[in-house]
Amino acid sequence: MIGGRTWSVKIQARSGTRDSLGEKANDWSTVIDGYHVLSLGKNVKEYFSDARVQSDVDYMLTGLYRSEIDAGKRVVYGSRVFDVVGAFLCYPEGYTGVKHLRIYVKERH
Prior knowledge:
The chain is mainly β. 4% of the residues lie in helices and 48% in strands.
């Protein structure tokens, strides 16, 4: 948590619906409404450089573990939309049995 603040965001997944021609529609549905981000890191390219992943990452979000969050989902915060590049289980310092999730995201422009 930065300065005692948390951010409430929506987690969305592709809905899988089809348009009138049978083509996959680009629709998103909310799978988690009110997911609380506990901490936020900006410009976290270095987290992926050691793993040799060729992806730019704008932010690293940390929240409580939820199995529904993975690559391919997106995070919506107000009018801002972020694609989830990866999500990894992590254990915070002083681990007390509560699992956390690191979510690496790239902002859509």
